[in-house]
Input
Amino acid sequence: MSAAFGKADGGADFTSALFLGQHHPSAGFRPWAEFTTGVPAALRELPDAERLARVIAGQQQAGSGLVARSALHGMMDVLQALPCPGDLLLVDGGAYPLSQWACRAAQSRGVRVVTFPHFRPPAVVPGTRTWLVTDGWCQGCGRPAPLAALQALAGKTGGQVIVDDSLGFGVLGRRSVEGSFGDGTGTLRWAGLKHDGVVWLASLAKAYGTPVTVITGEGGAISRLSRLGGNRLHSSPPSAADLGAGLSALRDSRMPRLRARLFRLTRWLRQALNDLGLAPLGLPFPIVGTRVDSLLLARRWRNGLAARGVQALVQLPRCQPGALLSAVVRADHSQADLDRLVRGLAQVTRDRRAA
Output
């Protein structure tokens, strides 16, 4: 784990997406009487499954909620159970690969699948019922999806917007004051939008550190999904450990403070990059990236940081050409960790900045 990296050799790891620093050591778990059910989720789930889904649906003021083992399991079930043969499925060209795979699987059921340019949906859609699939937040360009426009398009046809908000959930949310990420309830509420016409799903594996996914939406859609989702019919539900860790994180009173600290560290690093002449990409988010002239140079900078005990990422965005050098900020990073990263960047980028 990233925390262990820092303790082992004094280094600083900026590659882990555990944004709120949740590691869930086994000693912190309550004992459970049943680890898993041994039957498909559609037949029986552990009681904490309903509790976790209810908590998150309530936070979002959504009609109902349901758990899935992962974002892929959840997206596959959504696209199997909700769009019908003859419906149109419009998928954002920059959407995460898991969503792209699930959309391709929907084609075998007679659903027409069309890709649209990243965050540029068509101004007009045909009269047939249309579903739009997008990520809530794009790490490649550091922007939120145009969710209001997508809601309006889908609503005209009786379809809905299907949002994978795995990056934004736990970080972004409804903002009561400026200069914050919000309350962690997701990108939809961060944008000030209601849940109407949206099927929302997110993995808790990033901000909350547990590999379980929750799907929320209006009651009829979630009921249909519960009965017809293929993974629910043929796969085991999330385990007691996954569910318990998720509930524990959501109920942890420290979360608002951790989220506020995460925002402060993110804002500090973005300013430090600007001071080095390395413009940070997009809007404030804990994945802080800067464009690099070439993939070769990005790798050279990453290797230079590694030689100085700092781990960073080279990213190749799906939504645009070129490479990024990125650092993933976590609430459990120290100011000394960020100072070490910036010193390393100043050293490995010196030749380019001097030019």
Residues 255-275 form the longest helix (21 residues). The chain is about 40% helix and 15% strand. The two ends are 38 Å apart (CA to CA). The longest strand covers residues 130-135.
